[in-house]
Amino acid sequence: MEPPQAGQVVVIGSGLIGRSWAMVFAGGGFKVKLYDVVQQQITSALEYIRKEMKELEKSGMLKGTLNAEKQLSLISGCMDLKTAVDGAMFIQECTPEKLELKKKIFGQLDLIVNNDVILSSSTSTLLPTKLFTGLKHVKQCIVSHPVNPPYYVPLVELVPHPETEPSTVDKTYALMKKIGQSPVKLTKEIDGFVLNRLQYAVISEAWRLVGVRMTNYCERYREGMIHVLKTFGPVPDFSGEIEQQISQAMSERTPADPEHLNARRAWRDECLMGLAKLKKQMKSN
Ligand code: NAI
Question: 3-hydroxyacyl-CoA dehydrogenase NAD binding domain location, by residue (predicted)?
Fold first, then answer.
């Protein structure tokens, strides 16, 4: 017997990130409405998803338990926002990184959604207080920041607004686990969240050392990177209370006895071997 559909999700914006999210949710057995204001974007997204899923199925890399045709039958395009969100339990917004546009969309959603659906944004740089403050349904709002493309990179940062209900975070976390992502909860918002703070620190140091070929990246993210880097604190001394906290958390995760350490090392080596294999395959193509 076929597994029942898990529920209905809406993806708003069918660009690079939206189409990948649609595949991830369909892989988890969810019915997906892909909403966009540009019909051609929906058409090309559906074509792209069909091609990708068929190829993934052929190579044995398709996510989930349903076959490609079944997953494809769960995804449909939609150009009417009210119809799209009707009956949805989760909405993932993936429109361009423009504050006013996103605020307008969440404002529209605020007027038509019920008190249960979760309103989630893919934003890379906009803080929840900028996006959601003042909304009637703010307790149902959260940022679920993916890595491009979410189908292949499972990390998702979950960032609540100060008024987001803990149950919204917990439900989003559970949903992300269910669809095979690796969610990480942030307890409060911070410029650049965690991933981009780490990434920007590395990028800015690479820039100081050699400069890098990254014209397109800089065009898109220059302003955001400078903003986040200005919020960095002084050089840490890597000692004291924080050192103790990190050390304790690491010991809890992997106790420092030989049995646990060796198992963790073996796991790490297995992952590295998998990566090396992949790199070799990519080089030979
Ligand atoms: P994109 O430009 O590829 O796609 C945006 C889509 O939104 C387009 O299909 C466009 O037609 C649609 N759109 C525009 N206005 C709309 C509206 N009013 N209602 C519905 N749809 C509308 O953008 P991309 O790269 O997919 O980014 C989407 C979001 O994901 C951004 O917030 C971005 O910061 C975030 N993100 C992007 C990553 C990346 O590497 N591209 C990584 C992680 C997050």
Answer: 8-189
